[in-house]
């Protein structure tokens, strides 16, 4: 039998990405740009939440948005209507962004004079959780129609985020969704997680969410 070499490529890829992510974070720290990585399933309301966020913070922060999708530019058009700086990122079929791809996006966006940059990651709860983008903080949205069992099915995602937005809370009466159970399951995986119920449609909880984001960005830019 012939001999062959086994390459542990998964570990190698993650290790290199982590190095690049740390370098990017250091650069953004020097530039005083706060980068938020926003993740969720498709249809959870990421773009609508971003529009609400921009409307609340645009008069006090210079904001830039990176819209990542496998294809299409629908979300970028939506964000552009707010007057906010935005760039569309096409991943060429990849289901996530890594640190190098995020850097390319930031270069295309142009971070000059930005206080807050938000990456709307590709919509799924698996791949994006595995790759450090170089963001200062990670956020995710779980929408009520998705069900309260998602922390059990996708534990890594809930383990690595700093804040969980539970969206479409205005529709909770129409779904078998146990809000207390989600909170308990998420905090078991991540005791330090901040959980904020919101409705991007009605505006419920948006003030609490943007206050959290404002404080995080201020702390990042001052230290």
Automatic annotation (TrEMBL):
InterPro entries: CobW/HypB/UreG_nucleotide-bd, Hyd_mat_HypB, P-loop_NTPase
Pfam families recorded: cobW
SUPFAM superfamilies: P-loop containing nucleoside triphosphate hydrolases
Molecular function, one GO term: nickel cation binding
One Gene Ontology term from the biological process aspect of the record: protein maturation
UniProt keyword list: GTP-binding, Hydrolase, Metal-binding, Nickel, Nucleotide-binding, Zinc
CDD domains: HypB (cd05390)
All copies of domain CobW/HypB/UreG nucleotide-binding, residue ranges: 38-196
Assigned protein family: Belongs to the SIMIBI class G3E GTPase family. HypB/HupM subfamily.
PANTHER family hit by this protein: HYDROGENASE MATURATION FACTOR HYPB, HYDROGENASE PROTEIN ASSEMBLY PROTEIN, NICKEL CHAPERONE
Full protein name: Hydrogenase maturation factor HypB
Source species: Shewanella canadensis
Encoding gene, per UniProt annotation: hypB
């Amino acid at each position: 039998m012939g001999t062959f070499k086994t390459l542990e490529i998964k570990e190698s890829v993650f290790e290199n990405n982590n190095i690049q992510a740390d370098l990017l974070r250091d650069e953004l720290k020097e530039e005083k740009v706060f980068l938020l990585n926003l993740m969720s399933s498709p249809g959870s309301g990421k773009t609508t939440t971003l529009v609400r966020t921009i409307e609340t913070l645009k008069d006090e922060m210079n904001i830039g948005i990176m819209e990542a999708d496998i294809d299409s530019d629908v979300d970028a058009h939506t964000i552009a209507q707010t007057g906010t700086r935005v760039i569309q990122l096409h991943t060429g079929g990849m289901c996530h962004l890594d640190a190098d791809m995020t850097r390319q996006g930031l270069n295309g966006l142009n971070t000059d004079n930005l206080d807050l940059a938000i990456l709307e990651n590709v919509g799924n709860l698996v791949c994006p959780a595995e790759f450090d983008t170089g963001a200062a903080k990670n956020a995710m949205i779980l929408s009520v129609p998705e069900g309260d069992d998602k922390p059990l099915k996708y534990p890594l995602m809930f383990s690595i985020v700093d804040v969980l937005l539970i969206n479409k809370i205005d529709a909770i009466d129409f779904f078998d969704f146990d809000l207390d159970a989600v909170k308990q399951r998420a905090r078991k995986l991540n005791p330090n997680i901040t959980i904020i119920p919101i409705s991007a449609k009605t505006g419920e909880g948006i003030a609490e969410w943007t206050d959290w984001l404002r404080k995080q960005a201020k702390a990042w830019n001052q230290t």
